[in-house]
Amino acid sequence: DIQTTQSPSSVSASVGDRVTITCRASQGISNWLAWYQQKPGKAPKLLIYTASNLQSGVTSRFSGSGSGTDFTLTISSLQPEDFATYYCQQANSFPLTFGGGTKVEIK
Amino acid sequence: EVQLVESGGDLVQPGGSLRLSCAASGFTFSSYLMHWVRQAPGKGLVWVSRSSSDGSGTTYADSVKGRFTISRDNAKNTLYLQMNSLRAEDTAVYYCARDKGGSGYYMDVWGKGTTVTVSS
């Protein structure tokens, strides 16, 4: 199975800050990686697929990069509605696996 | 509007069974691969199972293999998850999700989830 590891597990940031979250796969997955946002009590929302493609309707504040084993989600200028937990997911092979999550909190 | 609505979650004793349903609307259900994903209280997301668009292909996480069965009724636009031999560690919110399609496995539409609690 492909393991996916996120860091950090939490980050405190202020409105307007640039935030970067990383995800590492235990083996190369080309660009088969997604990023999701989840707010408390809500279902996850797809933000980025194929490592860098913005899902329709998602603000361009979010961007993704990387390939192989190392990936990054960047929020260019943190807004109040961006405080949430973010998960990466490898989309290369079954079983699909999610990272442990990164909670973005208000500083 | 594209929508997924899960139902069937309940409190069940260890060793018991439960069937979850996921009703789809607003899109051509029979054209999409579908997934179940769960989230234990305070924990992260865990993929559980997937069904091909026609139901002929299924895959399971090792933790549920042999106990859970995914199926679908395309005439009723409904996805199912039959859960047998339930354990305390199966306690979670269960989400159904639509696969985006194309290459890779990305989940672009999610239901709100249904809660399964396994406890005596």
Radius of gyration of chain A: 13 Å
Q: Which structural category do the helix and sheet elements of chain B fall into? A: mainly beta
Strand content range of chain A: over 45%
Main β-sheet description of chain A: 7 strands, mixed
Assembly annotation: heterodimer
The SSE order of chain B reads EEEEEEEEEEE
Average of the residue pLDDT scores of chain B: 98
Shape of chain A: globular
Uncertain regions spanning at least 5 consecutive residues of chain B: none
Main sheet: strands, sense, barrel of chain B: 7 strands, mixed
What is the overall number of helices of chain B?
0
Number of β-strand runs of chain B: 11
Order of helices and strands of chain A: EEEEEEEEEEE
Q: How much strand of chain B?
A: over 45%
Which overall shape of chain B is indicated by the principal axes computed on the Cα atoms? globular
Distance between the termini of chain B: 39 Å
Q: Helical residue percent of chain B?
A: under 10%
Short descriptors:
heterodimer; A: 107 residues; mainly beta; four-stranded antiparallel sheet; B: 120 residues; seven-stranded mixed sheet
Which secondary structure elements does this structure contain, and how are they paired or packed?
The complex is a heterodimer of chains A (107) and B (120).
Chain A lengths: L3 E4 L2 E4 L5 E7 L7 E6 L6 E5 L3 E2 L7 E6 L2 E6 L9 E6 L6 E2 L3 E5 L1
Parallel strand pairs in A: 2-11
Antiparallel strand pairs in A: 1-3, 3-8, 4-5, 4-9, 5-6, 7-8, 9-10, 9-11
Chain B lengths: L2 E5 L3 E2 L5 E8 L8 E6 L5 E7 L6 E3 L7 E6 L4 E6 L8 E8 L7 E4 L3 E5 L2
Outline of the structure:
Chain A is an all-beta fold and 107 residues long. In chain A, 0% of the residues lie in helices and 50% in strands. Chain B has strands at 3-7, 11-12, 18-25, 34-39, 45-51, 58-60, 68-73, 78-83, 92-99, 107-110, 114-118.
